[in-house]
Write a sequence for this structure.
């Protein structure tokens, strides 16, 4: 029976690649991971060295190793420089790496779960839901869960937004690329309007201005005491997704094929939606809504390692970490001494990428039912 008759679709999130030998694929993956790891080290060094006070790279590593207890050289730097590197820039660079890696793997998983190459937390309204939850806690002063109240509220908001977008876009058991994106944009607009209304009506003027700046995304204000939560969320997310990489691969062939292979698609999606919402909520609570990292990185790394999620997930995590560190460096230096919200720069990069991706998929005729 033909596909048209059965109403099924064979569209894949990732276009089929030419067949390569397993050995060649492993070599390419190893080379890519080594290169990205080296780039991450260089990026972290640059993030610690570049700023209003320039610190030579050699001195940066001297300060870092000294702070870790390795007194292999006599300190030749001032106490002020050590404070800048260790207490100001290091947490910020690490948060950038953690947030970039987390958003990249979330975007990778979402594109497989909804079988849509345009899916990512920002475009689907997940980040907007997390932002609304976090801002609600700040505005109303809710402290039900103590220090974790902000992250818990962001998680609830992210999960609610994701489920609402998915339910809105799914009609007759099918979702199209355009319907999913439009549902995400519409719901994100509504949630953002509610968020703005909360900020405009609150009687905490100074706090509202700070929250408004936070909604543009940024890595400032982080310290060592708050870094453990997003780091834990990243490790949880990557661990769960790597364990489910085979099932994510199955979803690329469609729900019917995945069910035939023994996957309970509905239960699998529900579980991963919770995990992805949890990670998104924690990251948004820590860094604000930063868009398009989860859209760009999966597509870029697939050019080098193919579509297998066992390869895409770790590669996307490293690529996202490198990208966001450099975006933050640019945010701190382009208009110095004023700092540009890093979310503005990622949008400037991601917007044209999104438009190119839509034109590419339109030429391929991929706007069909995908779930």
């Amino acid at each position: 029976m033909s596909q048209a008759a059965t109403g099924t679709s064979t569209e894949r999130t990732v276009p089929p690649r030419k067949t390569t030998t397993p050995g060649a694929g492993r070599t390419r993956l190893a080379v890519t991971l080594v290169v990205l790891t080296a780039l991450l080290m260089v990026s972290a060094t640059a993030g610690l060295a570049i700023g209003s006070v320039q610190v030579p790279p050699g001195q940066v590593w001297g300060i870092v190793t000294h702070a870790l207890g390795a007194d292999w050289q006599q300190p030749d730097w001032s106490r002020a420089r050590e404070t800048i590197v260790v207490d100001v820039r290091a947490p910020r660079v690490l948060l950038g790496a953690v947030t970039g890696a987390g958003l990249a793997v979330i975007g990778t998983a979402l594109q497989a779960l909804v079988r849509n190459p345009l899916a990512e937390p920002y475009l689907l309204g997940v980040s907007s839901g997390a932002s609304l939850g976090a801002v609600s806690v700040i505005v109303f002063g809710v402290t039900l869960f103590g220090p974790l109240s902000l992250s818990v509220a962001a998680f609830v908001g992210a999960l609610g937004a994701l489920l609402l977008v998915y339910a809105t876009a799914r009609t007759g058991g099918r979702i199209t690329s355009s319907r999913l994106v439009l549902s995400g944009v519409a719901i994100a607009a509504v949630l953002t309007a509610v968020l703005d209304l909360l900020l405009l009506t609150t009687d905490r003027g100074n706090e509202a201005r700070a929250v408004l700046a936070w909604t543009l995304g940024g890595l400032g204000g982080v310290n060592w005491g708050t870094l453990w939560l997003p780091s834990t969320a990243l490790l949880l997310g990557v661990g769960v997704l790597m364990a489910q990489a085979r099932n994510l691969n199955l979803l690329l062939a469609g729900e019917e094929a995945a069910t035939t292979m023994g996957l309970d698609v509905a239960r699998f999606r529900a579980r991963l939606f919770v995990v992805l919402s949890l990670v998104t909520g924690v990251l948004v609570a820590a860094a604000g809504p930063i868009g398009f990292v989860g859209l760009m990185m999966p597509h870029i790394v697939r050019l080098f390692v193919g579509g297998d999620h066992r390869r895409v997930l770790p590669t996307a995590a490293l690529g996202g970490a490198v990208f966001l560190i450099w975006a933050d460096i640019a945010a701190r230096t382009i208009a110095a001494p004023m700092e540009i919200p890093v979310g503005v720069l990622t949008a400037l990069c991601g917007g044209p990428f999104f438009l190119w991706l839509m034109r590419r998929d339109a030429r391929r005729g991929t706007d069909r039912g995908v779930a």
Q: What stands out?
A: The two ends are 20 Å apart (CA to CA). The chain is about 70% helix and 0% strand. The first helix runs from residue 3 to 6. The chain has a mean pLDDT of 86.
